[in-house]
């Protein structure tokens, strides 16, 4: 295994490309190398590992379980090398570095934006990327090295031993409606009053969907039958603009949408019951040192939790 320390980045890239396309010839072509050279590199890699990385078959090359582990580490290594190259270039150009953050929707509005404003005031040339998505995608991205840290929930199937996990906050759900909705302005609305209305809500299994369903179950009420499933905020806004639908969103998003940014045409239901989502966490890789720019941003975020 000591020979693996001498592995070149191009060799790792070849393994990733074979795993992606499933054919040695296509992988070699995309890497601008001959098939015999690619075959020789793969043979040397498998010799050093002591086991096949791919199963050869009539339909192409399929990654073995050992190959999957190799691919996962290779992806992280290449991501690190790419990050190093980008940091060097940005520092040469007078920039401060790159920060890559993933987040579920709520903290992206409530915590990341104030932290971003504070960090940019000190380091105006910092290059920040914020990607919003579901926790399962964010955790996978962190595991693959695409993020420096994330705001997310840890899926039940995820081994969290490779992560440093900092507790953050629970999310509160608000129910958004248009200002002409029959429930607009009504005080102390109960869940039972919402049954007969149309809803637009995230797909089954999403945290907000689960929280809404749990609230109805805890109140002994059936869940509303008239539901349109969509995780697209644009679809939600379009439906709120034209229909008397109820749209559950995190408190932070609801405050933003019902404020002056959209002309004040949306509001929230004054709900008697409280709907909460399971807490999210600030998560980073236990074995990876944060670049200085990312560390500064991470520390600023922790001050706001």
From TrEMBL:
Top-rank taxon, per record: Bacteria
Q: Which InterPro entries match?
A: HTH-type_LysR_regulators, LysR_HTH_N, LysR_subst-bd, WH-like_DNA-bd_sf, WH_DNA-bd_sf
| Molecular function GO terms recorded | DNA binding; DNA-binding transcription factor activity
Q: Which GO terms describe its cellular component?
A: cytosol
Where does the record place the HTH lysR-type domain? 7-64
Keywords noted in UniProt: DNA-binding, Transcription, Transcription regulation
Q: Name one Pfam family in it.
A: HTH_1
Q: Which PROSITE patterns match?
A: HTH_LYSR
Q: Do you know which Gene3D superfamilies this protein is assigned to?
A: 3.40.190.290, Winged helix-like DNA-binding domain superfamily/Winged helix DNA-binding domain
**What family is this protein classified in?**
Belongs to the LysR transcriptional regulatory family.
Query: What protein name applies here?
Result: LysR family transcriptional regulator
The organism of origin for this protein? Celeribacter baekdonensis B30
